[in-house]
Amino acid sequence: MRRVNSQRYLGVENGHKSFEYIADKAVTVWAIDAMQEKTVEELITIASDSDATHAIVPPAHESKTIHRIGYEVLTENPYRFTEPEFQHEVHVVRRGRPDLRIESYNIRRSPLAKQFGWGIHRDANGKLALIACESEEYQRLLADPKVKKTPAFRSAR
Questions:
Q1: Which of 31, 68, 74, 93 has its CB 3.0 to 4.6 Å from that of 58, i.e. a possible disulfide?
Q2: Greater confidence, 127 or 18?
């Protein structure tokens, strides 16, 4: 039995590279978006149907919501996690749910960008950070032609 973390390349499927991460009998498979390999910054803007005019910290409840956990992960660790690493940290590490298919999760569906007024910046290395929609940094990223702008998914169809 291997006690060292390892990874095995599984191939490319639908434009995503898949790796199998093995850690002490626990196996997690996730996809790494091929777009993250390019050196392009991206700003995931707040959803077009969002009423948010400024960023709101998700409320803290006794049992933490997924968006509260996501907020804590990104504010405690700006530019530390790529999207697959972020999803793994939120769902597997902090929620204890290794049974979820996190490889299909998309940061653009996050309530942080859909309703709480947070933009999500992906730097040239693919690392994520939260940017308040009313901040100068958000406005600077919006105005920068080198930064790809991608809207968060709308809440309503």
A1: 68
A2: 127
